[in-house]
Structures are given as C-alpha cells and as structure tokens.
Design goal:
Blueprint lengths: L9 H25 L6 H19 L6 H38 L3 H26 L1
Helix pairs in contact: 1-2, 1-4, 2-3, 3-4
Length: 133
C-alpha cells in the first residue's frame, strides 16, 4: 500500500478507496455470471466485495454527491441480493453433499439435491442479468 501525506484530502482517500472496492465488484461479477459452475467462490467473492463496497459508500457518503451515493447503494444492493441467493444454495448444496457422503444413498436426499441444483440454476439468472447491465 502506498503511503500518503497526513494532509491528503479526505475526498481523495474516499475516491481511491471506493474505486478499489468497486473494481473488485467489477472483477468478480462477470466471473460469478459466467464461471460460477467452475468455481462457486466467484459468487462468494462477489457477495463479499459488494458488501465491502456498500460499507465504503456508507463510510464516505458525506463526501459523495447524494444522487451518486444513492445510485451506488441501489446497484450494489441488487448485486448483493442476487449473489446472496445463489451463495445460499451453493452452501446448502455443499452441506447436503457432505451429509450424503456420510449417510450413503437416499432417494429422498437425491431428490432434494436435484431441487437445490434447479433452484441454484434459477438463482444464476439475476447474476447474469446484473453482469450484462
């Protein structure tokens, strides 16, 4: 991390911090949209980076134009919400897989796994939509 002078303007620090947080969202969102089947951590990192960006907007809100802060909050909330749903299904599927390995084959569990995968596939659609917009 680069060291800056103590008298650096707060607005410059806010802009630099927010820029870094938003770059992470911009990095992970396309990966979550297009490569979630390869690595579910993309969705997780999208959620984490979005939450951190929202916190940064809140911290520096008084230094941002009101409409810009509202716009960031609205967009970030939509991305986070989409990622939350998908991530919840990813975690549920992983936990169920662990239980199935320990318990063996169970037709009811297999049906549940199929349902979770179907729901997860549906949860991917809003993420793709957010990445495309």
């Amino acid at each position: 991390m680069e060291i800056h002078s103590p008298d650096e303007a707060a607005a410059d620090a806010a802009a630099r911090t927010l820029d870094g947080r938003l770059r992470l969202v911009a990095h992970y969102l396309p990966l979550a949209a297009g490569a979630a089947d390869d690595d579910d951590q993309h969705v997780h990192q999208t959620r984490v980076s979005t939450r951190r960006a929202m916190t940064t907007v809140s911290i520096f809100e008084h230094l941002l134009p009101r409409k810009e802060a509202q716009w960031f909050r609205k967009k970030l909330k939509r991305v986070r919400k989409a990622a939350n749903v998908a991530r919840d299904f990813d975690v549920l599927a992983e936990r169920l897989r662990e239980r199935l390995e320990a318990a063996g084959d169970d037709p009811a569990c297999e049906q549940l796994v199929t349902w979770i995968h179907d729901q997860r596939r549906e949860a991917q659609k809003p993420i793709r939509k957010m990445a495309a917009s």
